[in-house]
């Protein structure tokens, strides 16, 4: 396979490549010059992304800054880790740069907290990113990390059926029930992955 022949990759090379050449996995990311394969997500993961896309699309339509929602587009740090390119689950891109990135966190990702922390740190180094939102697959809950003046990051936990996710950097608020609308099974069971 052509990808295996190349020992390390830059973010530019990775983002320009056709991912089909890496293999048959659902999605790939680049971490420290090495390509990581990801298995397909659980149906609940996809349903949460569908709810998020619908909610964001409705609120961003006609946005003055030209902000738009995207699913599965790349985000590469502009400094430091040039051999890393992350592929967030969803992004709000404004003026050509990602401003908010979203990750749906599965139960298996909760157990791999070191990898999740590393991914968040990589996303914090992406130029333009002001907010990182972790959406929990198995409960109505989000964690929001915000870039504050001076470059520090704050943390906010939002959860519960009556709660709303506030996205300060684009001036939006989205009820969690809208994000989870398609992911709430009638029998209360969730996908475990």
Structure overview:
The chain has 193 residues and is α+β, with helices and mostly antiparallel strands. The protein folds into 2 domains: 2-37, no CATH class; 43-179, Alpha-Beta Complex (tt1808, chain A). The protein is 25% helix and 29% strand. A 6-stranded mixed sheet has the order 3-4-5-6-7-8, with helices on both faces. The chain has a two-stranded antiparallel sheet with strand order 1-2. A two-stranded antiparallel sheet has the order 9-10. A hairpin with a 2-residue loop joins strand 1 (27-31) and strand 2. The longest helix has 18 residues, at 43-60. Residues 188-193 have low confidence and may be disordered.
Write the layout of secondary structure elements.
Blueprint: H1 2-5, H2 11-16, E1 27-31, E2 34-38, H3 43-60, E3 68-71, E4 90-94, E5 97-105, H4 107-111, H5 113-124, E6 131-136, E7 141-147, E8 153-159, E9 164-167, E10 172-175, H6 176-179
Parallel strand pairs: 5-6
Antiparallel strand pairs: 1-2, 3-4, 4-5, 6-7, 7-8, 9-10
